[in-house]
Design a protein that fits this description.
Helix content: 40-55%
CATH class of the largest domain: Mainly Beta
Strand order of the largest sheet: 1-8-3-6
Number of helices: 7
Strand content: 15-25%
Largest sheet: 4 strands, antiparallel
CATH architecture of the largest domain: Sandwich
Order of helices and strands: HEEEEEEEEHHHEHHEEH
CATH topology of the largest domain: Jelly Rolls
Number of domains: 2
Length: about 220
């Protein structure tokens, strides 16, 4: 994958602007579990994902976490350069969920491009709007959807991301993603198992009836 492949507006940039992005982008590797960004005080620059998977989440003072969204191949992470946006008043943490390779574009380089290029500014606003839409959708789910529906949707999403119907994930990890308690997750998974939708074993969850889970999630 080339850097240009991650920017749909690449052809709208001048050769000089394209060169600025290419010359500034530095390849970085983040092993699984690496903390890459921790709040608004940490302003490294933009992450452009070559391969792997990053997780963006918020954490309460008590340490409870809620996953906001995932970043996959070709995605651009703006919140790692949140100091560019004075309107952002909350802290987002970004970590590597899988071994990840990405380009890092320094904040100042991208800020200058936003100021000089209408195409970059408009595209950046589109990305920001899409991310906030995802966050608003998550808030609606947390506020209005029952936990069984949310958990069913989460399990199906994980299967889609991993390309496997057997998930290597702990109840504690699911609780961290969903902003819940491990005991609540365990009780609901045991119910799913009693209904024949999943099969539980130590450190893994096998999805045995995807259509029923999908029906519940909907």
């Amino acid at each position: 994958m080339k850097l240009a492949d991650c920017f749909p507006i690449w052809d709208k940039l001048t050769p000089t602007e394209q060169g600025q992005l290419k010359n500034a982008a530095v390849v970085r590797n983040a092993p699984k579990g690496t903390l890459l960004h921790n709040g608004s005080a940490d302003c490294m620059g933009l992450f452009v994902i070559q391969q792997g998977q990053l997780r963006a989440f918020v954490a309460s003072p008590e340490g409870k976490e809620v996953t906001l969204y995932r970043l996959l191949e070709g995605d651009i992470c703006l919140f790692s350069a949140s100091c560019m946006f004075s309107s952002i008043q909350f802290d987002i943490t970004i970590s590597a969920e899988k071994d990840t390779r990405f380009w890092l574009i320094p904040t100042e380089v991208y800020r200058k491009l936003m100021e000089s290029s209408a195409a970059v500014a408009n595209y950046t606003n589109q990305i920001m709007a899409a991310r906030f839409s995802e966050v608003m959708w998550l808030m609606e789910q947390v506020m209005w959807s029952s936990f069984d529906r949310r958990l069913a949707a989460f399990l199906l999403e994980e299967c889609n991301l991993d390309g496997n119907t057997t998930l290597r994930i702990t109840h504690e990890k699911i609780a961290s993603h969903m902003g819940s308690a491990r005991e609540v997750v365990s009780r609901m998974l045991n119910y799913f198992q009693s209904e024949g939708m999943v099969a539980l074993s130590r450190g893994s969850i096998a999805i045995t009836d995807p259509p029923r889970l999908a029906q519940l999630a909907d």
